[in-house]
Design brief:
Two copies of one chain form a homodimer.
Chain A lengths: L2 H9 L7 H13 L2 H12 L6 E2 L6 E2 L16 E5 L2 H9 L6 E4 L17 H5 L7 E4 L5 H14 L5 E4 L15 H9 L5
Parallel strand pairs in A: 3-4, 3-5, 5-6
Antiparallel strand pairs in A: 1-2
Helix pairs in contact in A: 1-2
Chain lengths: 193, 193
């Protein structure tokens, strides 16, 4: 197959990249330095070989234990539970969290056949020694809420403090433009001044 | 370097792909089939090895002469001159053109040191045997206009019919929202009914 069309076809398989963007990227690559193209190709090709699931927090990383789990300056009494590895990156990016993470790799969704055994809940229960608080940072949707509820029921009897991320209107959102669900949550979770 | 961050960094070098999109694509690739990731990596890696500049029309293709130049059903009396290989794809996509192409690889831009010798104008002049009409399909900007004007001055004395693509308001554009320059061109190029 023509290498140009082949490249377009492969790029167009990526999410959010349509055929037009795939063509645009391919033409750009054809004019780019050979070195850049080789580096990109190798970075994609080497992505999966170089990663493992961290034996402690279950995130996807280049080593196990991952760099976060190896960080001795973190507070071992605090674990933040998230659905996906990318949520770890997002929360780390906020710069304010100094505890450890645990990645469930999904959320409870009985209709899709995803129950507690399909998530990394057992590895979470195995690492609770010394932990005082678990923050449930699952998504604010039906599955994420159900997962948080399930975990709260399991964790609270163990004497742990269990909390959930605050959901409300985003900082910077004008109330006029806030979506209904966020506004509802913001009202429910109102705080005394 | 961590293979995940390396992949993000390389993807973020692509035009129109910022760091957020690069992260999103990388997480998607991590969950995708190994086969898909390998195919994408190989398609990018093999892009440049498999292409040459066509000795006739100067487009970038997998063979020389390219598949368009080898197409004997085309009208040898008609050549459409474009700036870039992707313009060939766009015009072919319109489905209406049955002549041959010629790719200049740029447009005249004296300030950037791009004169006639930096474009594929000599190979164009070398293939005019039997040609009756040259359509100048350079971009409707200062450089594209200058290039078309230059080529018209060179080609007309050779007894060729020289034309330029019609520029006006796009089909489907409401006049209210048409940009000023296109509207100006549409007025200039108005046609009697």
């Amino acid at each position: 197959m023509d290498p140009i069309r082949r490249c377009v076809q492969q790029l167009a398989r990526l999410p959010g990249i349509g055929e037009k963007t795939a063509w645009r990227l391919t033409w750009w690559l054809l004019r780019a330095d050979d070195e850049l193209v080789t580096e990109l190709s190798e970075a994609i090709g080497g992505l999966k070989e170089g990663v493992v699931e961290c034996g402690t927090c279950c995130t996807i990383a280049s080593s196990s234990p991952c760099s976060t789990c190896s960080d001795t300056r973190r507070d071992p009494a605090l674990i933040c539970v998230v659905e996906r590895p990318q949520d770890v990156v997002a929360i780390e990016g906020s710069g304010d969290f100094r505890g450890f993470f645990h990645v469930l790799h999904g959320s409870l969704s009985p209709l899709d056949g995803i129950g507690p055994d399909q998530l990394r809940i057992r590895p979470l229960l195995a690492r609770l020694d010394g932990v005082q608080e678990v923050i449930l940072a699952t998504d604010p949707d039906v599955e994420g809420d159900a997962t948080a509820l399930y975990l709260a029921r399991v964790l609270k009897p163990l004497g742990l403090k269990v909390s959930r991320l605050a959901y409300g209107i985003s900082v910077g959102t004008e109330i006029e433009y806030a979506d209904r669900v966020s506004l509802m949550r913001a009202l429910e979770n109102r705080r005394p001044l």
